[in-house]
Each structure stands twice: as C-alpha cells, then as structure tokens.
Amino acid sequence: MTKILVVDDDQGMRDYLEIMLTREGYDVTTASGGREAISVCKKKKFDLVISDLKMPKINGIDVLKAIKEHSPETMVILITGYASGETAVEAMKEGAYDYLEKNFTVDDLKSTIQDALSKRGIKEEDARFIKGREDAVSFESMIGKSKEILKIYSLIKKVADTLANVLVLGESGTGKELVARAIHKNSSRNNHPFVVINCGGVPENLLESEFFGYMKGSFSGAYSDKPGLFEVAHGGTIFLDEIGELYPFLQVKLLRVVQEKTFRRLGGAEDITVDVRIISATNQNLQDKVRNGEFREDLYYRLNVIPITLPPLRKRKEDIPVLAEYFIKKYSKEFGKEVKKISPYALQLLMKYPFPGNVRELENIIERSVALETGNIILPETLIISEEEQEDLASISDSDFNKEGINLNEEVRRIEKQLIEKALKKSNNSKTKAAKYLNVSYDSLLYRIEKLGIE
Description:
It is a single chain. With about 450 residues, this protein is an alpha/beta fold. It has four domains: about 5-125, Rossmann fold (3-Layer(aba) Sandwich); about 140-310, P-loop containing nucleotide triphosphate hydrolases (Rossmann fold, 3-Layer(aba) Sandwich), CATH 3.40.50.300; about 315-395, Helicase, Ruva Protein, domain 3 (Orthogonal Bundle), CATH 1.10.8.60; about 400-450, Arc Repressor Mutant, subunit A, CATH 1.10.10. The protein has helices at about 10-25, 35-45, 60-70, 85-95, 105-130, 145-160, 175-185, 205-210, 230, 250-260, 285-290, 295-305, 320-335, 345-350, 360-370, 385-395, 410-425, 430-440, 440-450; strands at about 5, 25-30, 50, 75-80, 100, 140, 140-145, 165-170, 195-200, 215, 225, 235-240, 260-265, 270-275, 275-280, 305-310, 340, 375-380. A five-stranded parallel sheet has the order 2-1-3-4-5, with helices on both faces. Helix 1 (about 10-25) links the parallel strand 1 (about 5) and strand 2. The termini are far apart. The relative contact order is 0.07.
C-alpha cells in the first residue's frame, strides 16, 4: 500500500487530508510540524509527503531538504495559503514535485498525487535498471555507462514495444539514429523494415516522391510505378531524421499519414494504408519553430508523444574513456593496426575537450589517431583536435617542470589572457557579454584587458 505522510500545523487541514486520502486507499501518517515530520521520516520511508510550507520553527522547505537527504526517491508536494513565485522556484530547486495553493480542489490534489506517484514509479524502475547495469558499457550499438546514458537505455526498453510515436532530441552527433534503431530492434517490429529518411538531405522537389512514391507518367521521367519509403516501411519503423527541416507543404501531408495511416502516391487516385511506427529526430528547438509559425503545432504534438532527450558528450564525460576504447578497437581492426589503448595524458586532453561535435567528433578524432599512430598506444602528438581548442586545452604537465621550474606569474598571465580572448571571441567582441561569460564585473574585465595588452 502506498504510504503518504501529511505534515501541517493546522489540525483541521491535517484531519481533512487524512480522511480524504484514507478513503482513496492510501496508508496515511500525520505530523503536526516539521520537527515531528523529520523524526518520523528517519524511522519510516514514505512514497509521498504532503507538507504545509508555512510552519513555525521548521518550515516546509526545511522538511523537503531533510526528506530528500534521507530518502531522495520520496516525492514531496508543498501546500501553502501564501503563494509566492520565489518560494515556488526555491521548492522546485530543492526537489519538490509540485506546489499547490490551499484553495486547491480535491481533484487537483488527487491528480497531482497520482502524477507524482507515477513519476516515482518510473524513477524506481530507472534505478533498478541502472543498478543492474553499473558495469555495462553497451546497449545495442550505444556505448556508455554514465547515469545519463543508462537512463536513456532504460527509457528505450520501456517505450520500444508501445505504438506511440517518439521524438528524439539532441545536438548533432549525440547518436539520435542509434536510439531509433535500438527502439526498433527491441520492439515486436524488429523483423520488419527500419527505414531512414533525412528530411534535410533530399531536395524539395524529390522529397514528396521519396515519402509517398509515384505512379507511372505522373511526371517527366516516371517510367514505372514506384513505392515510397512509407510503403517500404510497412509493418516496421520509419525514422524521420532532421524533422525540423521538413518543408511546410509536406508537413500537411505527413500529418495525414500520422493521423490516418493513409496517403496517395504522386499521380495516384487510391489511398494506400500503412502500418508504421514513426520515430522523428531533430537538433532544433521545435517549440520555437512552432511559435514562429515554421512548424505545424498539430504535427508537433502528434510526433512528440514520447520525447527522448540525448545528453551531449560534455554532460557525460565519464563515457569518454569507454567510447575511446571502443573506437580504438574498431579502427585498429579496420586499419589492420595493433593500437591497444590511449595514453593517460592523451585521454586527459580528451576529458578537457568540450566536444561540440559530440560522439561523432570523438569517433573522428580516434579514427584519425589510429590511422596516424605508428606504435601500439595513442600519444598526445597524434591526437588531432582543432587548433582553436588545442590552445584551450594547454595544461601544465610534469614535463613542463624543468630544472629551472616555471614562472608562475607568467603562466597565470598566459592562461588569463587566453580565457579573456576566448570569451571576447565567443561574444563577438562584446565586453559586456564576455564579462558575464567570465563571471567578473565589466570594470574588472576592462582593467584586465588593459593590463594584459589585449587588442
């Protein structure tokens, strides 16, 4: 039975919530204040805590912090009669699931509780999945063992055999197509086609016929009937990459396929019905495109039933060593080399690099390094990273400490100058923006620029 703790210094509200929630089938415990609530939570674990925000001595935020420290998986809903935007933001930052005013309806509270418990169930399932795969480094063709990527593996397993359309979001090079292929492979459609369409890589005048096919004589050069890729994908999965690049007139036609599972070939008079699971992907902000009138809102919501957001490589740096090892093995075999590993200092450079091109860029770097390396270990000198970033990655190693040592002031000055020049370049020479990037005041930045002689 789901265990809920109600915390409120108002006995009337406490009794009301206890009666209402008990009738709903929950196991309810009450506490008359923050101190009692924290004490109870240390002895017993709850699925959900509903706490008043304004209480003497120990308020709801303090209760929230204590609960999250002791039991991070417990969901917390805060209730108050004094709504405040600042306290709402603070509550959410500290991990509250939601924030309700005391004029809530019973239906509001029931709905919020159900949503919170549903999210808790997903978190627990994720935790079990991650715990069982802590040493694993691959899932289908995806590589990584960080918590961020393990959550993606778990989500793929959960959505794979549903009929819902999936929208994969993430920067270029994060592996969106790999996610789509993993979903297909883990679904009951895995014995049927997986078809890829790059919506931004086919000319406008050809994309419609690629999607839907054409009939003989429908245009110059149409010498025979040709099925479109939606027909080819019948029974399987179609992956619409770069969906944000889809031309407006095709968005209308795609919406019909998504809604009705039917379309017509170019020049055709009969509707063709298909059974396809649609997975889309984009590195763009589709919500912004919807607001700007560049992408149909109804199509967006049809495609974005289940969103999966891939983290950039810079947000999961612990995956860099295992990815590097995987690519070294892959390209050593492909090139007939005996490269076994990467040197610690070369790996250190990779760990410092921000990887704007994500996993794809890391693969390219390792591929070049394996091709150029003459020994059995990748050394820093064969690790080719962009010249602009090489400067940023310059660091002091043991070899820099010669007999005479180093000049600390000069090294600090050099690094400070590089950082300021980089910030100015990133901000298109706007000193105001550069100061924000560097977290210094505008006056401080001007002083440093003059001191260092930066043009």
